Amino acid sequence: MGYVFKSKDNNYTIIICETTYSKIILECEKYVNLETGGILIGNYSKDNSIAYITDSINSPNDSKHYPYKFFRGINGVNKILDKKWEEGVYYLGEWHYHPNASSKSSKVDDIQMIKFSNNKKLNCPEPILIIIGGNPSKWSLNSYIYKNNKKIILEKGNMS
């Protein structure tokens, strides 16, 4: 079971498994008044139309957390991603928390994700961004894909 997001044209679907969602929410609760984030891990359907987010990496220890901005660190990330690659799952994008605020992406978020989509070293031309907003009393979630220098908004559907 998981949370499903679809583009309006139904060309893109993201499914985030419940355990990964719970792991991300626990990290948000840890930094309740500070922004935080991490990396999304998973794989794609054979036709690449569905991204399955099966795991996440929480903020590395060299990350910088502030009330209105977050800089994800890199300590240990390559080692984890290499191990995940061997397990058949890959970097799919990023997740980010806006404490006590909207789960909509900011211009800074969009610019960063477009840079990631154009970064050949990441080998991820269509990175996913999941934004969590709110606080432990009420969470909100938005999901985006960045392709060809554009943001594609995905709508939250029912749990699968």
Properties at a glance:
single chain, 160 residues, alpha+beta, 8-stranded mixed beta barrel, two-stranded antiparallel sheet, 3 helices, 44% strand
Q: Quick gist of this model?
A:
With 160 residues, the chain is α+β, with helices and mostly antiparallel strands.
Secondary-structure blueprint:
Elements lengths: L1 E6 L5 E5 H13 L5 E9 L5 E8 L6 E2 L4 E2 L5 H10 L3 E10 L7 H12 L9 E8 L2 E10 L2 E10 L1
SS field, number of helical segments: 3
Number of strands: 10
- Unreliable stretches: none
Order of SSEs, N→C?
EEHEEEEHEHEEE
Give the amount of beta strand, in percent.
Answer: 35-45%
Q: Mean pLDDT, nearest integer?
A: 92
Calculate Rg over CA atoms. 14 Å
Helix/strand/pairing category: alpha+beta
Into which percent range does the helicity of residues fall?
10-25%
The strand line-up of the biggest sheet is: 1-2-4-3-7-8-9-10
Give a written overview of the molecule.
With 160 residues, this protein is of the alpha+beta class. Strands 1-2-4-3-7-8-9-10 form an 8-stranded mixed β-barrel. A two-stranded antiparallel ribbon has the order 5-6. The mean pLDDT is 92. The protein is 22% helix and 44% strand. It starts with a strand and ends with a strand. The chain has helices at 18-30, 77-86, 107-118, and strands at residues 2-7, 13-17, 36-44, 50-57, 64-65, 70-71, 90-99, 128-135, 138-147, 150-159. The longest helix has 13 residues, at 18-30. It has 3 helices and 10 strands; from the N terminus they run E-E-H-E-E-E-E-H-E-H-E-E-E.
